Amino acid sequence: MDIQKGDVLTMKKPHPCGSDKMLVLRSGMDFRLRCAGCGREFMILRAKAEKNVRSVDRTSREPSSQNA
Questions:
Q1: Contact status, residue 22 vs residue 8, Cβ threshold 8 Å
Q2: Distance, CA of 51 to CA of 17 (rounded, Å)
Q3: CA distance 9 to 38
Q4: Which of 58, 63, 29, 59 has its CA nearest to residue 46?
Q5: Of 1, 5, 6, 61, which is the most exposed, with the fewest CB atoms less than 10 Å away?
Q6: CA atoms of 68 and 58, how far apart (whole Å)
Q7: Residue 68 confidence (pLDDT)
């Protein structure tokens, strides 16, 4: 699964705050995610995250900055 920085993940199970949307802050062997509901940041193993992803929203990805 191709998940990159800036993607918004919709998870199968909600965070304890009730939101099921997570913003990807870092990707690699593990992910750093930020909950869209409460803003809490946490690390999760890539295998566990990919298993729990329902959908990936790439339209809300931040535009890449260009060197001027």
A1: yes
A2: 21
A3: 15
A4: 29
A5: 1
A6: 25
A7: 47
Q: Enumerate the β-bridge partners of residue 44.
A: 31
Q: Token pair of 43, please?
A: 């690390």
Residue 38 corresponds to which tokens in the numbers above? 């409460």
Residue of 3, 22, 2 lying closest to 11 (CA atoms): 22
Residue owning tokens 């929203």: 57
Please report where in the chains the tokens 């999760």 appear, as a residue. Answer: 44
Per-residue pLDDT reduced to its tens digit, 22-38: 999 999 999 999 999 99
Pairing of strands 21-26, 41-45: unpaired
Is pTM beyond 0.90 here? no
